[in-house]
Amino acid sequence: MESTPSSSARFASPDVGQRRTFGLPRAPSEYLASPGPTLDKFRSALNARWQLRNCNHVGRWTRLSGRAIVLNRGGYISIGERVLLFFDYIPSIFAVFQGGRLEIGDRTSINYGADFAVTGLVKIGEDCGIGTHVIVMDNDFHEIGDRSRRPEPKPVVIGNRVWLANRSTILPGVTIGDDAIIGAGSVVMTDIPERSLAMGNPARVIKKL
Questions:
Q1: Alpha-carbon separation of residue 6 from 22, 42, 73, 84, 132 (angstroms)
Q2: If you classify domain 62-208 with CATH, what class do you get?
Q3: 3-class DSSP state for residue 110?
Q4: What residues does 110 pair with on adjacent strands?
Q5: 3-state secondary structure of 56
Q6: Could you tell me the pTM of the whole model?
């Protein structure tokens, strides 16, 4: 007897040598039971499967409008369930290099023009909001004196329910606690505690939430 296929389609990874998992909707009827323009939802879910095909794992119900640039150079990219990617105007870039790991938690939303550059670890929690043109990087990618030498990566960890406003930049080695807000245009160079509003260049905590 033939075995019943699982609810996840699995593909071998030519770049990383690891299995990739893509959470697919069980049936179009599940979209019909949810509010909103169901055809658009279904199209954006299928678009996510295609645009994110170089990721190692994409959770169910993740949707993408527009275009993503995924550069997986021997790293690991995991995108959770029900993640919303709004890339209609400018593509966002996920660049993960050899040995790097990018994790994006469930129900997080990312807007257009965001750039993620990973050589070690960048971990983004659940229910986060990432604005337009946000930059998150765990490596400076070259020394000031010797441009051929790449520094060691410093992990970036962003907690749950964090809001990174438009054009904010998160630099290597930063940890941002749960429920924090980073103001527009801020450059975050040091850790930000949970339930804090931080703004400026460099970003400083100006208010506890």
A1: 11, 20, 28, 24, 36
A2: mainly beta
A3: strand
A4: 85, 130
A5: coil
A6: 0.79
- What are 132-185's pLDDT values in tens digits? 999 999 998 766 666 666 778 999 999 999 999 999 999 999 999 999 999 999
> 204 near 187, Cβ under 8 Å?
no
133 is catalytic: no
DSSP-derived secondary structure for 125-160: -TT-EE-TT-EEES--SS-SS-TTPPPPP--EEE-T
Whether 36 shows a pLDDT value over 70: the answer reads no
pLDDT in tens, 123-132: 999 999 999 9
Which of 61, 65, 63 has its CA nearest to residue 81? 61
Structure tokens at 208: 């506890």
Nearest-angstrom CA–CA distance, 57 and 178: 24
Q: Which of 138, 202, 120 is nearest to 192 (CA)?
A: 202
Torsion angles phi and psi, residue 54, rounded to 5: -90, 0
CB 186 within 8 A of CB 165: yes
Q: Which of 1-10, 30-39, 176-185, 189-198 has the lowest average pLDDT? A: 1-10
- Marked catalytic residue, from 19, 142, 143, 151: 142
Burial class (CB in 10 A: 0-12, 13-18, 19+), 82: middle
DSSP state of 5: P
